[in-house]
Specification:
Low-confidence stretches: none
Strand order of the largest sheet: 1-2-5-3-4
Order of helices and strands: EEHEHEHEHH
Strand content: 5-15%
Helix content: 40-55%
Mean pLDDT: 96
């Protein structure tokens, strides 16, 4: 069973998913998948194109925003735009889910969302955002 971690009603994050887990994401109501993992990070990692093909075959939107280390302002903006344009819940994944929630939380903070609330949402999903978000 996939490790989809709910952050908000609109966003869940996950460690690496496989093409087979795309069907589980669809069954759970996700309409968009954001892949924040660059191809080739690990030998056992499925190619982004494989996950994309499974998502498209399931009728889902697929967005690839590869993040290495901390996200750039452009990657934060791209992620925020993908979330706003999605017609339903979004599942974002990378190796552990950390880059996904970091990228999302930076966008939310820049848009004015309360830092303490974001840290609390991150903690509930199993991530520590206290060092990521500016005070």
């Amino acid at each position: 069973m996939a490790d989809f971690r709910r952050v908000t009603d609109r966003l869940s994050v996950s460690p690496q998913i496989t093409p087979a887990e795309v069907a589980e994401a669809k069954a759970r109501g996700f309409t968009t998948i954001i892949n924040n993992r660059p191809d080739g990070e690990a030998a056992d990692q499925p190619a982004g194109a494989e996950v994309e093909a499974a998502a498209r075959a399931a009728g889902m939107t697929y967005v690839h925003i590869p993040v290495r280390g901390m996200p750039t302002p452009e990657q934060v903006d791209e992620t925020r735009r993908a979330l706003l344009e999605s017609d339903g819940p979004v599942l974002a994944f990378c190796r552990t889910g950390t880059r996904c929630i970091n990228t999302w939380s930076l966008g939310e903070r820049a848009a004015g969302r309360d830092r303490a609330e974001l840290i609390e949402l991150g903690a509930a999903a199993g991530y520590d955002l206290s060092q990521v978000l500016p005070g």
